Amino acid sequence: MKVLVLFDVARPSSASETFSPEILKEQEDKETEADVLACLQRLGHEVETLAVFNDVVCIIDKLKTFAPDVVFNLTESFHSNRAHEPNIPALLELMKARYTGARPDGLMLCKDKALAKKVLTYHRVRVPHFVISTEARPLKRLRRFIFPAFVKPVSEESSEGVSKASFARSEEEALERARFIQEKFHCDALIEEYIEGRELYLSVMGNRKLSVFPPREIFFDQVPDDEPKFATFKAKWNDAYRKKWGIQNGPARELPPGLEEKLARLARKVYRVLKIQGLGRIDVRLTAAGEIVTIEANPNPSLAREDDFAQAAATAGVDYDTLIQRILDSASA
Predict the structure, then answer these.
(1) All structural domains of the chain with their residue ranges
(2) Is the pLDDT of residue 251 over 80?
(3) Is the dihedral of CA 183, 185, 190, 192 positive or negative?
(4) pTM (2 d.p.)
C-alpha cells in the first residue's frame, strides 16, 4: 500500500523534508512516529512522510502528488494549537482520503472533557461529579461540593496542567487552582470529585467490531500511603521522577472475578457513545468498593511500541507489526 505518515511539528517544515525513524526519534523526539514509520517500512509498504506546522496547502498538494491509499494520521495539533486537531481529519475527509484513527466528531467530543462527561452521564455511565469554572465567569463558590476535588484544564491533553496541586482539599485550594489553569492555559477549568482507587487503562480498537485488550494499570509503589495517587504530567513523562517514586505502567494486577468482562463492556460503551473510531483508550478508576468510574476517553492514544496501547495488545497476543497493519486496514474512507 502507498501510505502517507502525517504528523505535526512545532516549527515550519517544507513538503520536501523527509524523515527516517532515526531522525524522528533522535532529533524530533517523536517516538510514536518513529516506531510507526519503521513498522510500515518493515511491512513492505511504500511510505512517505509529511510534517505539518501551519500550511494547509502542503497537505493538499501531498495528497494530490503522492496519492496515498491510506493516510496514517498521527497529527495532534496545527500551528502548535491542539484545539485544531479535529480539523486535520476533516480536511482529509474533504479530500476523500482514507485515514487511520478518530474522525472529527469523536475528537471534538472527547477534547471537551466537560461535554464528554455530560454525554456519558446521559447514557448512565458513572463519571465523577463535576462543575466548570469558565474563563469568562470564574466560580467564586463551590456550593455543596464534596472534597477532596481534582482540578484540570477542560481541553488540554497528555496530563498538561496536572500536577500535585491539582488535588484540592478545600474550596479555597480548588478555586485557586482553577484560576491558575485559566490564566496559564486560557481555557475553562474542570473541578471534579476526586476518586480514590486504582487507575486502569482500557485499550479499544476497531470501528463496527471492537476489540478490547487486557487492562493496564499505573502503579505508585513508592508514593507514601497517605499521598493521593494520580498521573501528573511528570508521573507520565519524566523518567527520573517516575524512577524516584516507583511509578510504573504494566498489566493490571489481580482483579475480582468477572470484573475484566465488566470493564470490557464499559469500554465498548464509552467508545461508541463518544463516537471514537479506529482506536482509543478509556481511563477509569476502580474504587475499593468495586465501583468503576470513567475518568476520560482518549481517541488516537500514543502508538509507541513501549506505551500502554501497544503493550496491552501484546498481552493479548497481538504483536506490534500486526497491530499497526490492523489499524491501517481499519482506515476510514
Answers:
(1) 2-99, 129-193, 196-329
(2) yes
(3) negative
(4) 0.94
